[in-house]
Amino acid sequence: MTGGGIAGGANDREFEAKITPIIIISCAMAATGGLMFGYDVGVSGGVASMPPFLEKFFPKVFRQTAEEGSESNYCKYDNQGLQLFTSSLYLAGLTVTFFASYTTRVLGRRLTMLIAGFFFIAGVSFNAAAQNLLMLIFGRILLGCGIGFANQAVPVFLSEIAPSRIRGALNILFQLDITLGILFANLVNYFTNKFKGGWGWRISLGLGGIPALLLTLGAYLVVDTPNSLIERGHLEKGKAVLRKIRGTDNIEPEFLELVEASRVAKEVKHPFRNLLKRNNRPQLIISTALMIFQQFTGINAIMFYAPVLFNTLGFKNDAALYSAVITGAINVVSTIVSIYSVDKLGRRKLLLEAGIQMLLSQMVIAIILGIKVKDHSEELSKEYAILVVVMVCIFVSAFAWSWGPLAWLIPSEIFPLETRSAGQSVTVCVNFLFTAVIAQAFLSMLCYFKYGIFFFFSGWILFMSVFVLFLVPETKNVPIEEMTERVWKKHWFWKRFVESDYLEAEKVSDGNDLVSQL
Ligand code: BGC
User: Fold this and answer.
1) What is the pTM assigned to this prediction?
2) Looking at ligand 1, which residue's alpha carbon is closest to its atom 4?
3) Domains of the chain, earliest start first
4) In angstroms, what CA-CA distances link 409 with 200, 230, 298, 404, 414?
5) 147 CB near ligand 1 (under 6 Å)
6) Ligand 1 centroid vs 471 CA: distance in angstroms?
7) What are phi and psi of 51, to 5 degrees?
8) Ligand 1 atom closest to Cα of 2?
9) Rounded CA gap, 95 and 429, in Å?
10) Pocket-testing residue among 6, 36, 39, 41, ligand 1, by greatest number of atoms within 8 A of Cβ
11) What ligand 1 atom has the least distance to the C-alpha of 300?
12) For residue 405, which atom of ligand 1 is closest to its CA?
């Protein structure tokens, strides 16, 4: 989850449910899953800009950054090993997602979260104690495994434990936790950089242990979800847990629905094959495209490499880390804006407005750099440096109230029940894959394209905005089970996919109706 997708239940009928302490504890747990993810996003770029860290693990980069004028400014950090330090985490996460979807189903949500917690703790330990590059990368791979397990299990756990009326809000809350994790990492880097003795980076990498321990402890303490218990045949236990989490004895209707939903889910023999059916094409294309586009906004060039980027432009270490704290804070605040506006303004308005804002800010950055930092050792004057930071903030704020949360929210609300979990796995994988691509390529692209890299991202932003304009339907306030009728069948382009498979689609919705009648 990433911000992982928190889908609605079998349908969105309201059952009696109180916000019980166990629900609050569960939300706090989700916070640690999101914090952990965000912390890992934010921490790597900061430590990569610290000279003692570079000297120990990347001596070549260290020499390039230390010796004035020896290398073009834009190419100082161009190093595959340094990029692997960031990207290895996502490559591991991507691979593990497939196992995670199995353990989430067979071992349960709680045990999968516990596994994630152990991986996190092991990864943090390797990173904080790293003596060589191998230990460092191995630690990142362990963290990636943790993220693969956590991003699958935590969102599912949350969507099942939360009463349906707060599911949508929880989805964006998970994204908020990610941004808080990034900000926390930025702040930690800012302070540890000041430590004498050159081991501040160990504290930065080691402090990831706090959310890791909390997640492990939380997973140990909570009970598994009723859905998971029922799915694994523990009907009575599932019922008892449902009573406990809803804070009422009146749980029979919901219990029956869960039993039926689990039966229907078991009947879906080939969820991934289902996903490829023609009538699921719109959901699959939109979800995949949203994830690819989200990464090609260039957001992670900023989230991963802001300190390195600001260093490239001639900021001193302290100023670079400080500027990363500012962009991190803007990211958090703007995500809160999204929570308030997503169900009022709707998804399309946010995505399109943000497209314009992101396009303009990236173009301005490219133009400033193009004129002022053409090559070699030219550095930005203070006024222009501030202007670039302001433009980065404008870009980040637009991303944070649109593509950040919505690229996760929309896939979680458009897949029908029969393909929801498979759709979710594919969505997470595509996100991780393209996050890894950006992590592995950005510093080399910066070296090669120089300021043109921002024109490259601008081009993508233009393209994705046109995609949204014509192909992403509004899903604001549409209950999940009415998507086919109210959204796909009415869409100028996508209707051809659902209409030709009309009978088949009907069969599925009949199945869903059956579930909701019980
Ligand atoms: C993205 C991450 C990104 C984060 C920034 C998420 O939605 O998936 O790749 O780092 O937003 O806040």
Assistant:
1) 0.86
2) 404
3) 9-486 (1.20.1250.20)
4) 37, 26, 19, 9, 9
5) no
6) 23
7) -55, -45
8) 8
9) 8
10) 41
11) 10
12) 7
185 lines ligand 1 (CB under 6 A): no
> Is the shortest distance between the CB of 151 and ligand 1 below 6 Å?
no
Helix axes 80-106, 417-449, angle to 10 degrees: 180
Taking CA atoms only, the protein residue closest to ligand 1 atom 10 is 300
Q: Is 179 in the pocket of ligand 1 (CB under 6 A)?
A: yes
Per-residue tens of pLDDT for the chain, all 518 residues:
444 443 444 444 567 777 788 778 877 877 788 899 999 999 998 899 899 999 999 999 999 888 765 567 788 889 999 999 999 999 999 999 888 888 988 899 899 999 999 999 999 999 999 999 999 999 999 999 999 999 888 878 877 777 766 766 777 788 899 999 999 999 999 999 999 888 999 999 999 999 999 999 988 888 888 888 988 889 999 999 888 888 888 888 888 888 887 887 777 777 788 889 898 999 999 999 999 999 999 999 998 888 888 887 778 878 888 889 999 999 999 999 998 888 889 999 999 999 999 999 999 999 998 888 766 566 778 888 889 999 999 999 999 999 999 998 898 888 887 787 788 789 989 999 999 999 999 999 999 998 999 999 999 999 999 999 999 999 988 877 788 888 999 999 999 998 755 445 445 554 554 444 43
Query: Is 41's C-beta closer than 6 angstroms to any atom of ligand 1?
Result: yes
Per the rule left: phi > 0, alpha: psi between -120 and 50, beta: everything else, 225 is beta
Does ligand 1 lie within 6 Å of residue 303's CB atom?
A: yes
423: alpha, beta or left? (left if phi > 0; alpha if psi -120 to 50) = alpha
- HSE-up (13 A, CA, CB side) for residue 196: 0
Query: Is the CB of residue 190 less than 8 Å from the CB of residue 325?
Result: yes
**Closest C-alpha residue for ligand 1 atom 12:** 179
